[in-house]
Every structure is written in C-alpha cells, then in structure tokens.
C-alpha cells in the first residue's frame, strides 16, 4: 500500500499480536504529538484520520489536512478537502463490465500515446462479483435454478468471456463467478477483514479495512465496521489506478440506539423505521454512525441490514464501531483466528473499540430511537423511505390507488385471466420475491420466512395462483442452511423454490409475468403490486407490468403471497382458509423470536462458511469451460453487441484542450424532483421499438435475445440509446407523456431523446438538461453520467444533486450546476424551447464558483439566472478540465 515519506505527528508504531509484529499508525501517539482530543472523534473519522496519517506525503496529504481532522471537533463540520485512499475496490458485473471495458480501452489508448499498456493495471485489490445477470425466468418448480443458470450463460457468454480475459490480463483483479452470491453479502461474509494488512514492506502494516464499491449498497459492509460507500464506476476506476478520492471532511450524524426489539419485530421493520427517520432528518452527503446501549442487543446481521439501506436515506455511509459483536461475527463466519485477534488488538490500541462504559463520541448532530418502539412495517408503493405500518397497509394502498394512481373509479374491477379459473384486479400481488442483499444476508429473517412457510403449509394454505414466487439468496451459505434446517422443502411447498444466487427482482430482474396475467393487467390498466424483501421499489424498476411495489421482510413476502392482495389487512383479516375449513391469520403462523434464534444456532455454524467459501473463485462447470482469448490488450470484435471499444479517448492528445463556454445550447429535457438514476440510466428490458431495440435488430439480434440493458453495459451504442429512456420518466417538455421523448427545437417535432440528441450533435448544437431537487438519487450507475455525456449534454442544471451522480457527471466532463436564490426552471417559466448560454467556464473555472446562465426565450425575452458550480474540489476541477477522470489518469500515466 503506502509507505509515506512523512510522519509529522510521529504516529508510526509497532503492534505485537501473538507471534507477529505489525507497523501501524497510532492515533494515541498522534494525539500526544499535536492532535489534541482526537480520542473524542467518531469511529468513522478515526478511520479517515488514520488514512491521512498513513498516507502523508506533503502533496496529496499534508500536515494541514491532518490538523483539519482534529480541528473538526471545534465546529463539528469542515470545508477542508482531503484525499482518501481506500484499501480496495468492490464491483458487481453490471457496473464492473464497463469498468473493465474502460481499462481495456485505456490500454489501447496508452499504446496510441506511445506508452506501455501494462501500466494500466489495478494498483489496489479489486474484487468483481458476478451477481446481477441472473433473471427469474423460471420459478416455482425444482428445475428453476438449473434452467435459470443455463439461460444466464446463454445470454451472457460473451460478457463472461470478456471478464475471464480481464481476470487473466490484469494484476490485482479477482472475479467471483456467477451463482456464488450477491457482492455485498460475499463482501460481508468473506472478503471483508475489518482490519487490512499490507505485506509488501519490510514489516506488515495493519490499518482499517476500507473500500469503495460500484454499487451504492456497498454500505452494507459498514455493519462489520468497514468504512466504505458506493461510487460511480468512473470514480472506482480512478481509485483502482492509484488516484485518491477527493472529499470534504464530512459531518457525522450520531444515531443513538436504546432498548431492544420486541417479540415478532424484524430487522426489516427496524431498517424501514431508521430509513424514514433519517430521510426526515436530512443526512444527504453525511456520515451516519450508530452508538448507544441498544447496540448491546443488536446482532451484526441486523447492523448490516441498516448499513445496506444508507443510499435510501441519503447518507454516504452508516457505520457501526468495532465491538464484541464484530468479533463474534468474524468468528462465526469462519475468518482466520489470527486476523480476528489482530482486529481486537488493533481496535483497542487505536481507541476504536466500543466499550459500553466509555464516553460517547462527539457528533455534528444526533437523533435517537428506542428499539422497543419499532412496529411491523412495509414501504411503498414507490419509494423505500415511504414507510407504512402493517396495520395501516390496506388503508394506505386504497389511498394511493386514488391519489397516486388516479384509480378512484373502478376500484373493484376484476379482469379474467385467459385459460385460467381466476381473475386479477387492482392491488393483487403478482410478484412475491425473497430477494436482494438487504435481507437475504440476515439469517434471522430468512429462517423466519422458512418457519412461516412451514407453519402455513401445515395448515393447508397455498399461494394465490396469480403470484410469481421466487427465492434468490445472497450467498450459497443461505441455500445450505435452508436445506440443512429442513426449511427449503417447506418453502418449496409454497412455490418459493431456489431460482438463483444473485440480485434478481430488486434490480428489475424479475423476469416476465406469465403471459395471461400480463395481458389481463394491460387489458384492465390494473395497478398490480409486488412485494419484495429488497431495498429499491422505484417506479418502473421491478417489472413493467407492476406499478405498486412494496418492500417487506422475507416472512411478510411469504404472507402476502398467501393473501394475494394489498387489499387484505394482514393484522386483522385471514391469509386464507386452512385445510380444516377455518380461517388462518398471520398470528397463527408467525414464528417466535426464540424459535428463530434456536434454528439459527443449530444450523448456521462457522464450518458452513469455511466450506462454502473455500473455492469461491473457482465457479461451476459452466464458468470453468469458458475459453479465454487475448493477451495484453483485448481483441475487440467489431460485430459484438455486448462489448465495444468506447469512444472516450478518440483523438485524445497528451495535453487537454481548453474547456469552452456553453453557447446557444438547446434543452434536451426538463425534469421534476426526484429523478433517479433508474430514470436516467438504461436498465431493465429493451423494447423492440426503442432506439436500442432498433439498433439490435439492425445487428441481427432477435428480440428474444435482446437480454437487458444491464448485461449490455459494455456496449456504448446500446447504452447511449437507452439513456433517459425509462418507461416511466416524465420529460416536462412533453406534458402528460411517459417515456424517453423530447421536443426537438426549433421545429417542435416530438421524438425519442436519443434521436433528438443525435440530430443536435450533427448540427454541432450543445445541450443542457434542467431538473428539480435530488437529481440522480438511486444506485451508483456510471451510465447515467456516461450516457448523458455521449448524448452531447454539456451541463445539468438542477435544484440539488445526489452525491454519487454529481461526482459521476464531473467524471465524464459534464458540468453540474445548482440554481441559486430559490430559483428553479419552473419559477423561470421554462418550457424547453429556450436557448441557454453559460459563460465564465473558459476563464479559469474555480470550485464552487458562481456562474450565470443567460436564457433566451422563443419570443426573444432574456432572463439571467445565477448558478453555483458544483465542482467542489480542485481534483474534481482537474478531472473536468481534462474532459473526465479517465482522461486525467491516462494522461498522468502516459507522462
């Protein structure tokens, strides 16, 4: 890792653990040598401070940066920019494939600039877990798993060959093959070490395990006291190539927990409560750190569930300090005893170990929750922060049906399903999915679901025939303990057969509904529902046929599959009729906390983790038989519709061209509040009549073989055509119309956004996008920024940005700008027919500089709007001036 040339605060010390000695950078010694009272810092800031001490070089990290961390205690916030160097990078295949594509393209570009392609290699460890490509095509039968795996390899063979090449071509790069689990759960159960060790020097150096990941739910690992968060693929590539992450020293909000959860309350109920509270508090861009006596009663799996949801309440991370529970979990999951001893000794030596009797840390702000007050909850129908008490779910759905979905009339409409003896109506649950990293990593809710299924089956209950059921655990460990405990056969009885190991319904890989059900929904324009144990339920994400989506615990997913409708009050109405003819209520089948805990103790042991992770990088016979071609550089296939050499480096010189002002730009889109990266970035199914579908047909791809956008992220031609193409996105330039369309100016023709952008590009007309608040919330999707840039957008002007997307836009050379003085595009009266000129960019742009937009209306009226440049740091400015972060890194390496 790093052997700093400076140690201003004389913090380098030696730690002896057993028979081994480690170097480390001691916070107590730094406190004695000029950093007063740093023992009071939150755990998360101690991790950042250690990172600076270890990497002090007088250039990227100065003694002033380190002193600013101590000075944070005075104001509990800071505007100081620091350089953070994570220990490692985590990727999943949707975001990982384009990152490896970019690395391969950088090798080609390096050769073109006269440099050595071998210089393009990850400089920090990178793990890529293939988990985003399995789809719920088959379900509800014993052959579903094998069939879905076969389909996955048929569809993704080209991508997987490319990743196998990357695994052999790049150093410091490991691939966890398909069918192993979800990246966040594999990270939690195996990859993470809590304390990392670098063996490269004369003596091993111990330091906190830290990372960035190309998925926003990287924060799940905060539960095991690993500081990490999601970044765009662009930013992750820079970290891989040795660049630090530039960040402002964050505010840290302390979340104090007291009490313990009541009988029957799940981790999902807790996390939905926490999500709602933190959304209301306002923690966007801040660290959240949990503390207080409530941690004494909280298992690590519950902590990881809370950490996982950080993107849903907007926090950069949601971390828990190291304590006895951390050590228990590391032991329980089969970690090396020598490493566990190091974690304990290191944390205690650094003042990073939570001691129930110690003084509580200093925070920027605090809030608290008595765990005893948490009640059964779900969230929906469109956002994870919209918590609904289970006891009010029926009533709240009825209200949403009228207000959100405008279905006040025809509430009781039922549509016959062709060829079947049942009908469907508003609120019917057509998808019930136990899915996603959030909950399938938590054995308490998974065992709970299995026990509820057992109890329900014993009473003769069956899932309603219109429900598509699925079980997609986050790791093979889960599959093993469900089998070992005898609960998988019980889940099978209700149709919750294993369909794959990976992200499925939560990311939109729910697969198609049975055709007759889909046709009935379309015929009646029904508001069908899904219930999933996931973390995302944004509009248009789960399935194109399903408009109302609810997040729930795995046991409640099973319960709603039995009830079959959101119009059933699970608190007071029966789930169904038992084999004895009597009504069966949720309370009749809900397992006790004690029984769940007994099953966990009896069936989940450390040997189970050690066995399942012993050959985690080997893969099944499908993976092992993939042939690898290519050497130092990749042999691009011109006809490939999956992997193409992107155009980012075309015509690039060793020195960047001056950045020009934006003159006479046209408006590509006007968007309201809460436009997510799910709206912007290509995701889900590719429609035949879309620009991407037309491209694939032109390249002789049958619609049946389109696959989905996520699997084609290595082909910029497909992805740029799918940018802003979500079926539910609403461009306010075309009021009342959903989908990726715009108005081309000045002729006024309505057309797909991609087609309009290409017409503007041909005419050398720059583009801007206007948006409202929280633009770009959602997953850390690099293509939301890449696609924006490739469409010719020079600037996005919004009321506020989500952290990752703002960073990604800069990483692609797109300027993020924020309205000032309470203005918005609505208050300015824009309709999209205007032209926009933004000057001052070419005159030595500075971080957070105020610029002005001169907006000329169609009638010749001119308005001037002040804008804040949201390039926040000098490093970000360097990236922007180079046309993007990859160009910046490449030029530096080539020099």
TrEMBL record:
<keyword id="KW-0816">Tricarboxylic acid cycle</keyword>
<dbReference type="GO" id="GO:0046872">
    <property type="term" value="F:metal ion binding"/>
</dbReference>
<dbReference type="GO" id="GO:0051539">
    <property type="term" value="F:4 iron, 4 sulfur cluster binding"/>
</dbReference>
<dbReference type="Pfam" id="PF00694">
    <property type="entry name" value="Aconitase_C"/>
</dbReference>
<dbReference type="InterPro" id="IPR044137">
    <property type="entry name" value="AcnA_IRP_Swivel"/>
</dbReference>
<keyword id="KW-0408">Iron</keyword>
<dbReference type="GO" id="GO:0003723">
    <property type="term" value="F:RNA binding"/>
</dbReference>
<dbReference type="GO" id="GO:0006099">
    <property type="term" value="P:tricarboxylic acid cycle"/>
</dbReference>
<dbReference type="InterPro" id="IPR015928">
    <property type="entry name" value="Aconitase/3IPM_dehydase_swvl"/>
</dbReference>
<keyword id="KW-0411">Iron-sulfur</keyword>
<dbReference type="InterPro" id="IPR036008">
    <property type="entry name" value="Aconitase_4Fe-4S_dom"/>
</dbReference>
<dbReference type="Pfam" id="PF00330">
    <property type="entry name" value="Aconitase"/>
</dbReference>
<keyword id="KW-0694">RNA-binding</keyword>
<keyword id="KW-0456">Lyase</keyword>
<keyword id="KW-0004">4Fe-4S</keyword>
<feature type="domain" description="Aconitase A/isopropylmalate dehydratase small subunit swivel">
    <location>
        <begin position="695"/>
        <end position="821"/>
    </location>
</feature>
<comment type="pathway">
    <text>Organic acid metabolism; propanoate degradation.</text>
</comment>
<keyword id="KW-0479">Metal-binding</keyword>
<feature type="domain" description="Aconitase/3-isopropylmalate dehydratase large subunit alpha/beta/alpha">
    <location>
        <begin position="78"/>
        <end position="564"/>
    </location>
</feature>
<comment type="pathway">
    <text>Carbohydrate metabolism; tricarboxylic acid cycle; isocitrate from oxaloacetate: step 2/2.</text>
</comment>
<dbReference type="InterPro" id="IPR001030">
    <property type="entry name" value="Acoase/IPM_deHydtase_lsu_aba"/>
</dbReference>
<dbReference type="InterPro" id="IPR000573">
    <property type="entry name" value="AconitaseA/IPMdHydase_ssu_swvl"/>
</dbReference>
<comment type="function">
    <text>Catalyzes the isomerization of citrate to isocitrate via cis-aconitate.</text>
</comment>
<dbReference type="GO" id="GO:0003994">
    <property type="term" value="F:aconitate hydratase activity"/>
</dbReference>
<comment type="subunit">
    <text>Monomer.</text>
</comment>
<dbReference type="InterPro" id="IPR015931">
    <property type="entry name" value="Acnase/IPM_dHydase_lsu_aba_1/3"/>
</dbReference>
<comment type="similarity">
    <text>Belongs to the aconitase/IPM isomerase family.</text>
</comment>
<comment type="function">
    <text>Involved in the catabolism of short chain fatty acids (SCFA) via the tricarboxylic acid (TCA)(acetyl degradation route) and probably the 2-methylcitrate cycle I (propionate degradation route). Catalyzes the reversible isomerization of citrate to isocitrate via cis-aconitate. Could catalyze the hydration of 2-methyl-cis-aconitate to yield (2R,3S)-2-methylisocitrate. The apo form of AcnA functions as a RNA-binding regulatory protein.</text>
</comment>
<dbReference type="InterPro" id="IPR018136">
    <property type="entry name" value="Aconitase_4Fe-4S_BS"/>
</dbReference>
<dbReference type="GO" id="GO:0047456">
    <property type="term" value="F:2-methylisocitrate dehydratase activity"/>
</dbReference>
<dbReference type="InterPro" id="IPR006249">
    <property type="entry name" value="Aconitase/IRP2"/>
</dbReference>
<protein>
    <recommendedName>
        <fullName>Aconitate hydratase</fullName>
        <ecNumber>4.2.1.3</ecNumber>
    </recommendedName>
</protein>
